[in-house]
Amino acid sequence: MIVWTIEQVLAAPGLTPYVSTEDAEIAAVARAAGAEIIERPDDLAEDTTATEPVVEHAVEVITERSQRPEAVMLLQATSPIRLPGTLSRAVAEFSSSAVDSMVGVVPEPIFLWQRSPEVRALYPFENRPRRQDVTPEQERFRETGSLYLTRTEIYERQHNRLGGRIGLFVMDPAESLDIDTLEDFERAEQWVAGNH
């Protein structure tokens, strides 16, 4: 999955893949695939470590090596499916907008419910719209976990991948797979085998 993501970055002009890891085997695989390695300190490699401190550490290392990046594209290897051109399209949308951070999303049906603390619809079920009549105000999107693009100062000031003026980067529904189970991994493997 790491190699697949590195290859996607290398295919997008102007992007450099960095992999932060404390694991020698992952570092070797990533380096062989063309990524630059950031040696992650043990205190940032705990099971409970959040992503943001890891990104902030990576920014510090990159700044020491060359220059401070203007923005960071965070690509999680556990959400590996990105269509050709997606990363370049994200950079173009980010550059042409006035957003400070951008989150990859996919369209979701508006007909959502919550169970707790009480059962209730998250749409006006009393006046159920037809799918084709859903207005832009009624549209809903689900975060993919696949792609975040954030100005470096947002990490520095807010210690979060999202902050300031947030934009939505609408991705193809095929790009929404997040690997949490063996079945998810098998689905991703099938997709990659058929599209690589």
Automatic annotation (TrEMBL):
<dbReference type="Pfam" id="PF02348">
    <property type="entry name" value="CTP_transf_3"/>
</dbReference>
<dbReference type="GO" id="GO:0016779">
    <property type="term" value="F:nucleotidyltransferase activity"/>
</dbReference>
<dbReference type="InterPro" id="IPR003329">
    <property type="entry name" value="Cytidylyl_trans"/>
</dbReference>
<keyword id="KW-0808">Transferase</keyword>
<protein>
    <submittedName>
        <fullName>Acylneuraminate cytidylyltransferase</fullName>
    </submittedName>
</protein>
<keyword id="KW-0548">Nucleotidyltransferase</keyword>
<dbReference type="InterPro" id="IPR029044">
    <property type="entry name" value="Nucleotide-diphossugar_trans"/>
</dbReference>
<dbReference type="InterPro" id="IPR050793">
    <property type="entry name" value="CMP-NeuNAc_synthase"/>
</dbReference>
